Amino acid sequence: MLRRRMQFNAVQTLTLSFAALILAGGVLLTLPVSSRSGQPLPFLDALFTSASASCVTGLVLYDTWTRFTLFGQAVILLLIQIGGLSFMTLSILVSILLHRRIGLHRRTVLMDTIGALQMGGVVRLTRRALLVTAACEGTGAVLLALWFCPRYGLGRGLWMALFHAVSAFCNAGFDLLGTGASLTTAAGEPLLNIVLMALIICGGMGFLVWDDVLTHGRHIRRWRLHSKLVLLSTSLLFVGGAAAFYFLERDHAFAGAPTGQKALMAAFQSVTPRTAGFNTADLMALSEGGTLLTMVLMFIGAGSGSTGGGIKVNTFMVILLSAFAQARRKEDVNVFRRRLDRDDIRKAYSNVSMYFLACLAGCAVLCVQGISLDDALFESISAIGTVGLTRGLTPSLPALSKLAVLLLMFAGRVGSMSVAMAVTRDRPRAKVRNVPEKILIG
């Protein structure tokens, strides 16, 4: 009886695995060997840093290079890698290497972890996810080494190249430049910016998209509808966001930079809010329009089944297409000669509703503690979107606000709906349903 009660479903297993990872990382970061000063970090600060790394967010209380030793940086890097791929994905890698059988429960958890649409082929998809990760991070590290090594020496340059490659692909946003201002001092460096943008986009597309790319190549007609929606929305947001940032910030945050650098900064600012957390522009210098656009992009995020967060670009597209179909009085939502499933549309609205409510709750806590509404809203969206961008608020957060932001990061990575489902009991489908009645909407 006790064993039966202790069995967890897939959502609960995923939620508990992330919670355990955060706790373990927090303990390791409190060790004196993790801090350059030799003094242990306060446990709440260590737990916050661990949550930020495990949830691939990038909100930091301390500058990573100046505060943490090589051991501490290695712990953070390991948390980013495990958090980006999830603990269950790496456990499957161990099982594959040891030729162990992968049970039904673990396959179910993998479906939620990597965004598989069906149980069949989930292990094959996991292998491809690991292969894509290794290829992207390895290639990125080699290219970044060409920039870091001449500036920081061979040893430190290689370490920084590897760290930033993993941080970018996993959409984490941690950096080792030691400036305390992200990548603002390297805003005019094409190699660094382009490689990081490419890694962020590759990690943010999702492994289901990569599976279509590897299976069908350029034959886009054979791709899943999910992959087509992700690529279309990602392309539109990137091009539209870059153009908008260029015209909004050329006389504000980008003022004084050459035209070519302004274009590069606009492209980078369009990519990083979804949901990487690096920034090459001073966020406090953004115009009101640029700040709003950044929050919108943070809210939307990356693709489902990816290393990024947000409500997800495919969810955003489903809601947008559904709204357009309703406005045109169409019963079905059609795109790319396919009809969207009604359950998927309902799930999209439910997920966004829970996400929005959690964001508002976190924002309310920050406001109660004396933080201005615009800063609180920016920080809350950044946290639940696992973005990591901040207007300088994070290092000075009060204890209760730190806890609120920590919970937002956790909910954003696992999924606000998943967290809610993890703490509720599974209920069988009701045999008797109530009589429906219409209400006025709109």
Structure report:
With 442 residues, the chain is an all-alpha fold. The chain has 19 helices and 2 strands. The protein has helices at 2-5, 10-30, 43-54, 64-67, 70-85, 87-97, 104-114, 122-152, 154-169, 190-205, 207-216, 225-249, 259-271, 288-300, 313-327, 342-368, 373-384, 399-414, 416-422; strands spanning 334-335, 338-339.
Keywords for this entry:
mainly alpha; two-stranded antiparallel ribbon; single chain; 442 residues; disordered N terminus; 2 strands
What would you call the shape?
Answer: globular
How far from one another are the termini?
49 Å
Which consecutive residue ranges, at least 5 long each, have pLDDT under 50?
1-5
Q: Note the total helix count.
A: 19
Q: What is the number of strand segments?
A: 2
The main sheet orders its strands as 1-2
The major sheet is characterized as: 2 strands, antiparallel
Overall structural class, as computed from helix and strand content, comes to: mainly alpha
* Portion in helices: 55-70%
> What is the beta-strand fraction?
under 5%
**What does the average pLDDT come to?**
86
Succession of helices and strands:
HHHHHHHHHHHHHHHEEHHHH
The quaternary state of the protein chains shown equals single chain
Radius of gyration: 22 Å
Give a short overview.
The chain is mostly helical and 442 residues long. It has helices at 2-5, 10-30, 43-54, 64-67, 70-85, 87-97, 104-114, 122-152, 154-169, 190-205, 207-216, 225-249, 259-271, 288-300, 313-327, 342-368, 373-384, 399-414, 416-422; strands at residues 334-335, 338-339. The chain has 19 helices and two strands.
